[in-house]
Fold this protein.
Amino acid sequence: MSKRSVDLVIISDVHLGTYGSHAAELVQYLKSIEPKVLVLNGDIIDIWQFSKRYWPKPHMQVLKELVRLAANDTPVYYLTGNHDELLRKFSGFSLGNFHLLDQLVLDLDGRKTWIFHGDIFDASMQYAKWLAKLGAIGYDLLILLNSFCNGVLARMGRPKMSFSKRIKQSVKTAVSYISDFEQAAAAVAIERGYDFVACGHIHQPQIREIATSQGSITYLNSGDWVENLTALEYHGGMWYIYPYSDAGADRSRDLTDVLHEASAPITPPRPVPVPVS
């Protein structure tokens, strides 16, 4: 199987150990690439909701693919997020090509890229962590309910829908939160003299220029592997958002798919990266 060579790949918010994680699809993506550098930008394993009762085969296969890449001389940087914040006490640990950090700065063709998860800009994480954890549980239950409802809709011959996306698009405070998050990350990165800033956390894939009174910067977000199934790729001096399948397609699954995903076959994906201006 031929694999695409990519200079840099950033993925985040996989949330292994939860019902919403599209681990099987991520395995297919990882099998299709040969990255020179791989950055895992937080919330890869959802330690907040980790349970031995739900750890299907595809979730373990993701970890095996990451080990395989590191063993094949690909530097793998695991940057901690809020859902895997317990790993922060081990920040600075390295083993071969695997490195555990809280943030990372890379030089890309003479331009500095600051990469970190982004939860430091989340007020609920700073002042009401219990509320953030409660919201995470509610989000996972919403994904599970969404899967059940989509199974019913499919049997009725009606199109599937994404509850979480509809909520984000319809609630003004959610839209404002995303915008404020992006502006805050960009403002700090500009002050520190970076050319790019790459985050995760808000599950919103994005590449856009953000300007402040002190300058401008390219803000990037790798999205997630719960709803959007996206990664950031840097190759040939350009950034891309890589959509696992057709852009804008609904990502929710039937409940039976969620509960039996361990038996899903692993086949190589067919999409190609789509440049974002």
